[in-house]
Amino acid sequence: MNNTARFLSIAAVAAFASFGAQADEADASQFATKFETNRTRADVQAEAATVAQTRSIEPAGSRVVTYKSMADRAAVRAQAAEAVRTGQISSGERG
Predict the structure, then answer these.
(1) CB burial of residue 18 (10 Å; 0-12, 13-18, 19+)
(2) pTM over cut 0.70
(3) Which residue among 13, 21, 80, 85 sits deepest, i.e. has the most Cβ atoms within 10 Å of its Cβ?
(4) How far is CA 48 from CA 8, 36, 42, 55, in A?
(5) Which tens digit of pLDDT belongs to each residue from 3-23?
């Protein structure tokens, strides 16, 4: 019983402290943004429908350009080995 009472009292103090941590006005005035517009509700809904129809569901940058290489694998490996031997490219952990 003592542990339960201690736990509930700590939870109550934590809940009370979290309410005091809000750094805003009590009336939530930051959400009361006022603006004037001359567009009708139908105009806004039509624009939203047009945007939804033209939007792609494919994430940006997910399309990959494919490239078909005509080089032989053995030739590429031989060129890379020659470049390492001549010091044109680094190998291992050396910079």
Answers:
(1) exposed
(2) no
(3) 80
(4) 49, 19, 10, 11
(5) 888 888 888 877 777 666 566
Residue 94: what residue type? R
Whose tokens are 């939870």? That residue is 11
- 37-91 pLDDT tens trace: 788 999 989 988 888 777 777 777 677 777 788 889 999 999 999 999 998 988 8
Angle at the Cα of 68 from the Cα atoms of 62 and 70, rounded to 5 degrees = 155
DSSP classification of residue 92:
T
Residue linked to tokens 């009336």: 27
Q: Quote the tokens at residue 41.
A: 């509700």
In the block, tokens 């939203």 appear at 48
Return the structure tokens found at 42. 């139908």
Distances in Å between the Cα of 43 and the Cα atoms of 35, 38, 71, 79 are 17, 10, 57, 63
